[in-house]
Design a protein that fits this description.
heterodimer; A: mainly alpha; Cytochrome Bc1 Complex, Chain C; elongated; B: alpha+beta; Rieske Iron-sulfur Protein; 2 domains; four-stranded antiparallel beta sheet; three-stranded antiparallel beta sheet
Amino acid sequence: MSPANWLIDRLGMRAFMNAQLYHRVPRRVNPLDFLGIASLFVFVNQVITGIILAAWYSPSVPAAYQDMQKIAHQIPLGWLVQNLHYWGANMMVVLVFFHMLRVFYIGAYRKPRELTWIAGALLLAITILFAFTGYLLPWDQQAYWASMVGTWMPFYAPVIGYFIVLLLRGGPYITPVTLSRFYAIHVLVLPALFLIVFGLHFYMVLTKQLTMVEEAEELPREKQKGLVTFFPTTVFQMMMFLVIVGSLLVFIAINFQTPLLAIADPLNKAHYNPIPIWFFYSIYQLLKYIPPVLDPLGIIGLPLIAGVALMALPFIDRIPRRRPSERKAFLVPAAVAVAGIFVLTYIGSVSQGIPNQQVVANPTYAADILPILQSSCAQCHSQSASQQLHTPYLLSYQGIMTAYLGHSLIQKGNATASILYQRISTTNAALRMPLGGAPLSQGAIQTIANWINQGAKP
Amino acid sequence: MAEDHRLRCSICGNPVDGEGEICQACIESGRDKDPRELSRRKFLTGGIVGIGALIGVGYIGVLLKNLYPASEASAKYQDVGPLSQFTDSYQLVVYNGEGFPDGVYVRQKNPGEIECFDFHCAHLQCPVQWVSTLKEFQCPCHGSVYNQNGQHIAGPAPRGLYPHQWKIEKGHVYIGGQIG
């Protein structure tokens, strides 16, 4: 008796293993069905690289930031471990999201797999919390200010909002106390939660069979001849998929360094302009479109409604049909929601200014120009920044009309001769303002041109 | 020794043959319908759930009391410089009351009267900048604007800037914890 057989025998799992490994499945399998196992693979990558990082990392200030640099530059293969963990985290959010989309599309969440789906939805939430708490740990400017904004979001929840903010931060703002808390949540609380919920998820997957098995069993007898056993044929196909996913991860980790900005400065002396974590871009962008009174709805309401809808889905959708064309009532709204998330995420990633700037025909500085400058130029052209960085001061009418190093920024009545207009409209990325950022929207550029051409009214 | 894997009667504890939680003897003697037996079982069940809940509530209480930060209003005052240093235009000073630097805008509004605000925007906590020529605080993130009294005048912020406590002693300005 081989050791494996001995173990299965003593565990009393012979029948179970036979049922799991040797059931009949179609030979051709859609690789999208392997997104779940790919998520698990990346999770294991996170565990292994996370343990190594924890051995070198100390969650205190300024040690946390210095450890990040040490891991990246001094410790043998530290850079690789760090990059695998960083890119693995991003990849996992993407994989879990698409795994969920796939399961949704084929309707595999319905009876008797409600619990599989609910546990999966919880795993998505836990994955996002992992990424969110891990984001603060490098303690650079990006981490600090993104977490400052992120941990303020619960403030908009009724009654208990501020209570949650204080509990998360351990004080009114982000301090080393917050860093310790996020570290404890990241390496103790979330892994324990993840394993419990994943245990339920995996147990349900094993006991309720995969939909592909169900489909195989429904096939007419003559077609059953083309079936193969799950082990080893399908498992080998899975391994091939994991090799592709793993190769992609390693390729990214070797070629793209984990970003690390300057160490977190709670006084923000360099006027760093906070930007959110990429999977919050959609909410970030949405907040720009909705009136401020609806902010609580956008920050708390929508994610809450989306979460409840996800959990309730298997109890709402009871139509026993599997073909997508018969499930339009669910697929169409979901497609709209997902498309919305994609579009908002994309716009959020390329724009830092006011979106959809309307072209103003007769603009004045105070009413139309200043808001554009505030949202897109304040980082380097506010009064204090202009003194420190020796840049022109643009956020007042006097400032923008004052010659800079002997050159007027504005030639009243002639936009194309004005340096300000030239620098925002040029196609030369090395010169175009905002420097290193996305260009202003066409509406904003045209509004500024109109303003100059009409004499640059205050 | 062969172990007895049969289910046990939940009243008398003797082995039960076949289905069910209660043995034939208990059913025949009417013990399963005895009001005293029913209320005894109810009492014990309640005890099991109750004691478990009590232990859980105890731990949650300790956790919240331990992790919830002390009131900010009780934070210590800190000397940020002589009164004469402050004009009626804001200066950003470093406040270390929480043991970690925080930015506070301070000005002498009227002789002997201080006005001070935390530099985190009331919308989503980005650092606001004081623009002295416009006499405004501006936020770089979503464009909230506050006037020189900290009141919200434009942009998405739901309220004005958060004031800090202050006092003047022996010609020096002391800044305390944030209010509200």
